[in-house]
Here is the input.
Amino acid sequence: MRLPKQVRPSGFDLQMTSMIDVVFLLLVFFLWTSSFDEPEFDLVSALSLPPVGNASSTVETTPVMFDEIVVRIMQEVSGIPKIRFNGTSIETLEILNTRLQTIVAVGAQPSVIIHPDSTVAMETAIAVYDVARKAGFDRVLFTVSQ
Here is the structure.
């Protein structure tokens, strides 16, 4: 009696099931860890300088559209917080409110970045935040000094 020959598989047999499982797990991992939120904007690293040269008084200036508004809150020695709106000093929150409302009335909607010093009380920073939100700004961000 003759025994049947054993058939050996010729070539390399690839198992696709485990590879599909790994690809599916990687897909789930990357979808789970990805973020679809908009990243926060970075602060400007340098201030733009005014143009150099002879400026004549007859030249009309157009209003500048802001990409972002930086509200800096600093604590003075006397204990009274000092507010700077894009580099200019502001005495009260009411003046800040009117300036922000003027920008909103123009139709601009830049992001407002509140930059309090580490010595400023949190209630002052929150008061500035509330003023910006009441003025009509949707994007109000905080930044901190290190």
Remarks:
- Helices lie at 16-33, 93-106, 122-135.
- Residues 68-142 form a domain with the Nucleotidyltransferase; domain 5 fold (CATH 3.30.420.270).
- The longest strand covers residues 68-75.
